[in-house]
Amino acid sequence: MTTHVTTVPAYAAPAAHAPLERTTVPRRPVGRHDVLIAIEYTGICHSDIHQARDGWGKGIYPMVPGHEIAGVVAEAGPGVTKFRVGDRVGVGCFVDSCRECDHCLRGLEQYCARGGTATYNGRDENGEPTYGGYSTHIVVDENYTLRIPDGIGLDEAAPLLCAGITLYSPLAHWQAGPGKKVAVVGLGGLGHMGVKIAHALGAEVTVLSRSLKKREEALALGADHYYATGDPETFTALAGTFDLVISTVSAPLDLGAYLGLVRTDGALVNVGAPEEPVTLNLFSLIGGRKTLAGSMIGGIAETQEMLDFCATHGLGAGIEVIAADKINEAYERVIASDVRYRFVIDASTI
């Protein structure tokens, strides 16, 4: 039986800085290669807050955030070959790309030369705005849909579609593993997944956080060491220690100080995205042939690889499940770092 969903309940920001409120948004008919996903859980990412509040530039309103989506296939188009009704699936930060550029052909759709189509706060090929996962259903091309393995609960899997792949991709690219020393800066929604994944890859993991208050949590997640960046002695004691430092924080850092922690030929990789610009003295790079880099989520194949890896190693996100009417409160708590470690919306409450 075909399900014709034309409008669905959702929570949207009607304007920049406005509280999110319940509304309805349109969904396109299920096309030949589309799946209709009944959303069960959607994670709240800090980038949702940045975009809903115009922190990264002018947004498209009303805006339905949410790009950490987990649910079940409710309908499959006649040409769909990868999924069937009832399959557990997920959607991440983008729902389409040009499929023709060098990046797309290499499986790096997240760097699509034409920009790709964001899951929300974007425009599709027809120029219509995209609406994200703070809703009950979404229609997505099967080629941009992920299979969630049975070994992970859908609630714990939802944040993996952004937080998980955001950390897995640079850890894999810079070959974190046995014999490598990895530092994760920040122990929040992104950082806690970095610790779990780096530990599972076999790296020696250090957490760098502002104070010592999260030390026991970090060690329980798999960290081998923990240091407070609020202590200036930390940067002296750890100078030239790490092969890879990954910063997950969304505030500007003293990049020179953190590059001082990187050994020769090592890398400082930024996955957090501050709203403010940062500065750098280039001597911090020159002395040691160091790399200052960025990384943004992952392609479809790599995201599926990450999900399978997490299922194999029993890794899910640390979550707090909330009802949809608590979204605005959750936003304030995220800003205050008052969550361990990711809010997840129960879509049945939308």
Automatic annotation (TrEMBL):
The lineage of its organism: Bacteria, Bacillati, Actinomycetota, Actinomycetes, Kitasatosporales. It comes from Streptomyces wedmorensis. Its EC number is 1.1.1.2. Residues 15-345 form the Enoyl reductase (ER) domain. Its cofactor is Zn(2+). Gene3D superfamilies: Medium-chain alcohol dehydrogenases, catalytic domain (3.90.180.10), NAD(P)-binding Rossmann-like Domain (3.40.50.720). This is alcohol dehydrogenase (NADP(+)). Belongs to the zinc-containing alcohol dehydrogenase family. Keywords: Metal-binding, Oxidoreductase, Zinc. SMART domains: PKS_ER.
